Amino acid sequence: MEEVIRALLLNDEWIAHYAGNRVNFGSHPQGEPFPGIVLNTISDNGGYLIASPDGLNNARLQADCYAGTYGAAKLLSRAVVNLLSGHSGYEIQGVFHAGSRDGREGGTNEAERLFRVSLDFIITYTI
Question: Is-above-0.85 flag for pTM?
Answer without folding.
Answer: yes
